[in-house]
Amino acid sequence: MSTRTRLALHPLPTTLAAVALVAAGSLTVSSAPAQAAACNGYVGLTFDDGPSGSTPALLNALTQNRLRATMFNQGQYAAANPSQVRAQVNAGMWVGNHSYTHPHLPQLGQAQIDSEISRTQQAIAAAGGGTPNLFRPPYGETNSTVKTVEAKYGLTEIIWDVDSQDWNGASADAIVQAAGRLGNGQVILMHDWSANTRAAIPRIAQGLTARGLCAGRISPQTGHAVAP
């Protein structure tokens, strides 16, 4: 009697059957549940002002350290660097709206604010980044008019809980320390172009792992970091 016939006549217990299937190469066992169990909370890593010539190096650093982040792109740069927007998405990142030209929005009229936001929505979508549902106002400056326009385009306003100060020349050590202050659900501000931030990424990843935190997406419902 062949092995195949014996298996058909005498079904193996579930566990043994699974082992047999793995040995035969016909069953894939995922390690995802084990990885998920290590996440006791999620934080939102965000990078403003891309895409730029620095984007490929940033994406390499993030992917090498198994981190995902939200990239708040300026519309003018998305229009000029569409391939980098696609690269962000292909690397597993999420793309948000950071206005078209990075102005002080509260100083503008509603029509100008609308233009800044709508043109960025269009530029990111045209570049292959999808239609953003998150918006970060430049400098974190907002008011009721800005919020009205955000709502028109279905955007959730995302500020930050921790400022890395990379825009202000913070060292890699200081940026790592800033990331160490992140708690579950919180969001940190970083920038696409900062070499010190790129240098800090491996240690940011190590610090999060040591504290049982994982890099998550930002929920458009709550504005907090959640499981991807």
Structural account:
The protein is of the alpha/beta class. Helices cover 43% and strands 16% of the residues.
Tags for this model:
228 residues, alpha/beta, six-stranded parallel beta sheet, two-stranded parallel sheet, 10 strands, 43% helix, globular, disordered N terminus
**DSSP strand count:** 10
What is the CA-based Rg, rounded?
A: 22 Å
Order of helices and strands: HHHEHEHHEHEHEEHEHEEE
Q: Estimate the strand proportion.
A: 15-25%
Mean pLDDT value: 88
Please state the overall shape, judged from the principal axes of the Cα atoms.
Answer: globular
Instruction: List unreliable stretches of 5+ residues.
Output: 1-36
Secondary-structure content class: alpha/beta
Total of helices: 10
The residue fraction in helices comes out at 40-55%
Q: What composes the largest sheet?
A: 6 strands, parallel
Cα end-to-end separation:
50 Å
Quick recap:
With 228 residues, the chain is of the alpha/beta class. The chain is 43% helix and 16% strand.
Topology:
Elements: H1 3-9, H2 14-24, H3 32-37, E1 41-50, H4 55-64, E2 70-73, H5 75-80, H6 82-90, E3 94-97, H7 110-126, E4 134-135, H8 144-152, E5 156-157, E6 162-163, H9 172-179, E7 187-191, H10 195-210, E8 213-215, E9 217-218, E10 225-226
